[in-house]
Amino acid sequence: MFTENERVLSSSSMDESVLDEKTRVERYDSQSWESLKTNPLYEDLVEFKDVFPETVPCELPKDKGIRHEVELKPGSKYCVMKQWPLPREQVLAIDKFFADRLAAGHVRESTSPHSSPTFCVRKATGGWWIVHAFNKLNAATVPAQTPIPRKDVIIDGMSKSTIFSSMDLMDGFRQILMRERDIPYTAVSTPSGMLWEWLVMPQGLSNAPATFNRCVSHLLRPVREFAPSYFDDVFIHSRAMDGKSDVEVHRYHVRQVLTIMRKHQLYANLKKCTFAASEIPLLGCIVGKNGVRPDTEKIKSITDWPVPVDVRGLRKILGLVAYLHKCSRNYAEMTVHLSRLLKKNERWLWNAECQRSFDGIKQSLIKSPVRSGQAISCGL
Questions:
Q1: Which CATH architecture group holds 4-54+147-172+209-291?
Q2: Which H or E element spans position 257?
Q3: Environment class of 112 (CB within 10 Å of its CB; exposed 0-12, middle 13-18, buried 19+)
Q4: Potential cystine with 90: which of 120, 190, 242, 308 (Cβ 3.0-4.6 Å)?
């Protein structure tokens, strides 16, 4: 649902130095059931091993109480885009994909007046991603107004916690049912002449991330005090209380979350999870018992960023910096000259003041201190 650059990745149980030094690939590779054997939650996790499958079970999911809805703007007509021809290798990949989806109960043959084309994108590891071009349907869809969880609220709620876990939920697209009357909108054509429609929420619909976020928030509402969620990420935090150690409380909290996930068929990617750690990556920051600091991977991507040559490039870097702007001293003052270049009809002129601002932002992030959760979150 989200790009890899948006992911917050981690390994099992890490201290601060390990989190700083490990790359994303290394974190992926190091996480396994074997590596978790020394983790205090190992036995609990093994008990809920079905929540961490290698692949999501290929079956029609349960009704989770939230279905994906498609509301078209008034006056919208049939959303139709013509299917274009594809190489035989891709046609065969698409046909196999839909044969598997049909067997799982995810799709059915369609007679819908709507139709969006299907195409392939090469995977970095080989093979094909099957993608639908829902451009016309998305343009005609009323945008969802589901509120996005606030990063500052999530961090503020963790400010007194001393032990943390995070879980990355898998394949949210096909884990939510479509509202029955909206199924015809999801009709997709294939190069071999078939027309299918989705019974589950497919990838590519404009409001799909909002629906998944709403569904996860709805299901985890009973535990949101210690397990807030942000789209497909769930963060669990605990501290010692009522005579119990922080590990004992955390074990109870994690088991509650896993019980809900098992009941409602929510699955997590083990390689992208952290369990019983003193700190976890969270939305561009590292949040732990000692406070909040910027994620070094995020900082490195900013400090390595080349000088922008146009408005588009400047927007990209400022968008990335905005994730961590409270870690940057005097952020508003430093971006005055850069923000000026974003104004409508402003002539692009990258001068010495812009360069000083650009360099100053990078340096302030490098030197940013560790702050308490309360200090950083309330300022966002």
A1: 2-Layer Sandwich (3.30)
A2: helix 246-264
A3: middle
A4: 120
Distance CA 308, CA 335 (A): 14
Q: Look at residue 329 and give its three-state secondary structure.
A: coil
> Is 202 within 8 Å of 174 (Cβ atoms)?
yes
- What's the mean pLDDT when you consider all of the chain? 87
pTM of this structure: 0.78
Q: To 10 degrees, the CA torsion angle through 331, 333, 337, 339?
A: 50
Task: Encode pLDDT of 241-255 as tens digits.
Answer: 999 999 999 999 999
Look up residue 80 and give its two tokens: 């139709």
Q: Assess contact for 264 and 1: CB atoms under 8 A.
A: no
Domain ranges for the chain: 4-54+147-172+209-291, 294-377
d(CA 360, CA 178): 49
**pLDDT tens readout for residues 302-327:** 888 999 999 999 998 888 787 666 55
Reference 241, options 166, 153, 154, 162; nearest CA is 162
What is the distance between the alpha carbons of residues 39 and 127, in angstroms, rounded to a whole number? 35
Contact 223, 257 (CB under 8 A): yes
C-alpha dist (Å) from residue 146 to 56, 192, 380: 26, 37, 20
Across the range 83-93, mean pLDDT stands at 97
Residues forming beta bridges with residue 165, ordered by sequence position: 236
In which element (H, E) is residue 196 found?
Answer: strand 195-198
**Are the CB atoms for 185 and 258 separated by under 8 Å?**
no
